[in-house]
Design brief:
46% of the residues lie in helices and 7% in strands. With 114 residues, it is mainly α. Helix 3 (53-62) crosses helix 4 and helix 3 (53-62) crosses helix 5 (89-100). The longest helix has 12 residues, at 73-84. Pfam families: Exonuc_VIII.
Length: 114
């Protein structure tokens, strides 16, 4: 009788009743079965080189010495906040200088970073 019962079980499922007899999920430690992690959206990144000059200058300013290729949503908000902050004379002078030097307008990103 036991041999006959085993003939109806394929991959842990009874082929006559459709009942799942065994749990066949495997976790090798390098992936998570958490649904929250599986549906977590990837961060939205913006390429700095495609941004307007004022935003490119501010992106490199907030990089704190590191060259930024991309900015995420929070960094983009910080760039917009700095651009609108008229009380920050350093940032406003930086933007004014960048817009009034013709060679700077045509500079590549790496040179803006310097």
């Amino acid at each position: 009788a036991a041999a006959a019962a085993r003939q109806h079980i394929v991959d842990g499922v009874d082929t006559e009743t459709g009942e799942v007899l065994e749990d066949h999920t495997e976790n090798f430690g390098n992936e998570s079965n958490s649904p929250a992690q599986a549906t977590a959206p990837a961060p939205e990144l913006t390429v700095v080189a495609t941004m307007p000059l004022r935003h490119r200058v501010l992106a490199q300013y907030i990089g704190e010495g590191e060259y930024l290729y991309h900015v995420d949503a929070s960094q983009k908000k910080e760039i917009l906040r700095l651009e609108m902050d008229t009380d920050n004379s350093y940032v406003q002078n930086l933007l004014l200088a960048a817009e009034n030097v013709e060679a700077f307008k045509k500079a590549i990103e790496h040179d803006i970073h310097k």
